[in-house]
Amino acid sequence: MKVFYFFILIFLSSFTLHAQWSTDPNNNLIVGYGLDPHICSDSAGGCYITYDYENIYYPRKLALERLNKYGYKPWGTLKQILGESPQQYRAKIIEDGEGGAIISYIDRYENLPNWTERVRVQRVDSSGNFLWGQTGIRVALNTINQGDHHLVTDGNGGCVIAWQDVHYIYFINRIDRDGNRLWGDNGITLNTGGSNAQPIIVKASDGNYYLQAGTIIYRINQSGGILNQFSSTILGQPVSDPEGGVMVSGLVWTGMIPKLVAQRKDSLGNDLWQEPYVEIADSLYYINPRFNIQYNDGYYYYGWSGTKYGIMQVTQYQGLRQDGSKLFPQGSIQISNNAPIGRPHIISSDSGRTIFVWNDATISSSTIAQMYDTLGNKLWNENGTVVSYPAIAYQNTTDGQGGFITMGPIDQFTIVVQQVSKYGNLGEIITSIAQEYQNIIPTEIILFQNYPNPFNPTTTIKYDLPASLNPSKGGTLVNLVIYDILGRRVKVLVNEIQQAGRYEVQFDASNLSSGVYIYQLITEKYLSSKKMILLR
Fold first, then answer.
1. Main-chain dihedrals φ then ψ at residue 467, nearest 5 degrees
2. What is the pLDDT of residue 364?
3. Closest Cα to residue 347, out of 304, 388, 405?
4. Which residues partner with 17 through β-bridges?
5. CA neighbours within 13 Å on the CB side: how many for 346?
């Protein structure tokens, strides 16, 4: 079945609803009072938020709140995340893929000068029920003093979590949907130490995992086996690519000036771009040379603060295509004329659009947001949407409708939250009774990675055809063909004249055996191939 989006703009019946969310940037919605808040989506237009509360010092308590898409608290009050010790804090939170959330946190006991810290995980459903017991699950039984940790969904209701102990040794374990430790009672020990960098773990598009543990990035399979590894001394901060590989980025210093560079690696660790890396920006702000990365609809977006037009501290962004070329070859896009606080956050919207959120030091320390298309055009007000006075952008998540929810502390302990719609309006919930169609005219030809991948037995292949392919409006001949690993043609999905637009084609492999298959998009001036995995 093919789905095609084109030049249609019809509103049969739609309306917007202003709910509990604030519509005033001076008066954002208060969630609670505490420290160290973290946020993730609830997969239904709302969010989950954790924060420490009741004490500044030991023993703190750990709260979990849920806000629905209208900004209301369906649980009525907070849920306390418990452990076996007096204090729970330093939480991380992710979606569980089924409408709930998984929280990792430190369980601490202290009788100074002695203390112990253990990492625990808890899973909560959308109704606020604890699914892994009242005190959660220990990620390892033997080790005692565990510290920095990071987790990612396993795609099946569980998680994969990495952590570091006081000796700077890294560990990793997988917790299944029922709270069982799949990779042993003590996890897997990685032979790296001497670095106090927090572990970073991402899930690859082929179902495996990449873990940055200090100066090494490991590729780990679903059973916990180490497939390969490579150095991350310069390039780290991994982001999965659509073909089972990974993007790595970092800073290269020339005197006091840091350059932002990146490389893309395949699943075997081979470099796919020019050696030794692709240069994205040549002059980040040296006092705080940090950056954010977000993959969105075929592009890798980077946001940072650095020199531009002779001005030292300018908020800007650049995009990279999957071949390593720049989306804006003439130079980065300047987001704001004012000095920022830190670096911009990046949020994927719909239809290939991207939202940037930053804290502005000039306008009374405010949080501002702007949406851009792939041509670098601003889609909201020229100066962006003012989200908050004072600035709150601390962490962000999608609202599930092309907008976002941002959250952070003001006045040190007051945790506030703000929803912004895809039209740049505060507190706007978009509800369509019929269907809201959008004009989606791609600017480049792109063959996307199929989803899901691996798959059984159906998957969806999406591709974009720009207007430049058929300037005469007569269309262009398009072929989408499936091959097996030996190069034998398995099926022709598309063989017809098509206009500019975005296309989705469903591939049913019910009559095929497990294995690797190739799908290829062919036009008069373009050919691209990608791998997909049928896993019975």
1. -65, -25
2. 66
3. 405
4. 429
5. 23
Which residue carries 């292949």 as its tokens? 461
- Pick from 121, 165, 161: nearest CA to 145: 165
Using only the alpha carbons of the chain, give its radius of gyration. 24
Say how far apart CA 210 and CA 315 lie, in whole Å.
Answer: 30
The answer to whether the beta carbons of residues 421 and 436 sit under 8 Å apart is: no
What's the pLDDT band for 502 if we cut at 50, 70, 90? confident
SS3 450: coil
Which of 76, 78, 87, 80 lies closest to 32, judged by CA?
78
The pTM assigned to this predicted structure is: 0.82
Beta pairing, strands 366-372 & 385-388 = antiparallel
Asked whether the predicted pLDDT for residue 13 surpasses 70, the reply is no
Can you say whether residue 112 is alpha, beta or left, with left for phi > 0 and alpha for psi between -120 and 50 degrees? beta
Residue 515 CA, distance from chain mean position: 28
Q: Collect all residues with Cβ–Cβ distance below 8 Å to 256 and sequence separation of at least 6.
A: 286
- Reported as a pLDDT band with limits 50, 70 and 90, residue 385 is very high
DSSP 250-317: EEEEETTEEEEEEEEE-TTS-B-SSSS-EEEES-B-TTS--EEEEEETTEEEEEEEEEETTEEEEEEE
pLDDT at 254: 80
- Answer CATH for 446-534 from 1.20.1250.20, 1.10.10.10, 3.40.50.300, 2.60.40.1930: 2.60.40.1930
Residue 232 backbone zone (phi > 0: left; psi -120 to 50: alpha; other: beta): alpha
Q: Is the bond into 344 cis (omega within 30 degrees of 0)?
A: no
Other beta carbons less than 10 A from residue 530's beta carbon: 18
What are the CA-CA distances from residue 362 to residues 290, 336, 391 (Å)? Answer: 20, 11, 11
